Amino acid sequence: MLRKVADWLSPNGVGYVAYISRVASMLDGFISGLFEDPEYLDIVRQDLETGVHRPNKDNTKYFTDAYLHYPDEIEREAEEAHLRIVDHVAIEGVGWLWQNFDQIWSDPRQRAIMLEMISRTDRDRSLLGASGHILLVVKRGPTIDGD
Questions:
Q1: Cα separations (Å) of 22 from 28, 30, 32, 61, 130?
Q2: Most buried one in 30, 39, 54, 95, CB count within 10 A?
Q3: How far apart are CA 32 and CA 46, in angstroms?
Q4: For 79-119, what is each residue's pLDDT tens digit?
Q5: Which of helix, strand or coil describes residue 24?
């Protein structure tokens, strides 16, 4: 997929690649109690093993077909496509793990704390995969003049 991004970018072009964490469905299962459903457990096992998220076609409550990435996996793919990594940042960060989001968001003090914690950790490599969605910012590889 990132080879196509490299083809589309102009020599100094910037690409934004949003992707889903390989462990997103597992974390969602922990928070939402979804592991009580054996079908969901099978989906998560497949997600973790292969990255292929493919729920039963007759049951769309568990998202759609998708490929889930580990952060280091998508970085390797970018490098293989001769893309320079400019930034790698968690979109929700660890903030999505708070159960009472609406309550926190409505309280200015709590919201400020949540946003501070997210901003302190959104580029922490050890926590990237804990975000459900992640953004990789890339530039097309060096040109003859080094840009």
A1: 11, 14, 17, 18, 9
A2: 95
A3: 19
A4: 999 999 999 999 999 888 888 889 999 999 999 999 999 99
A5: helix
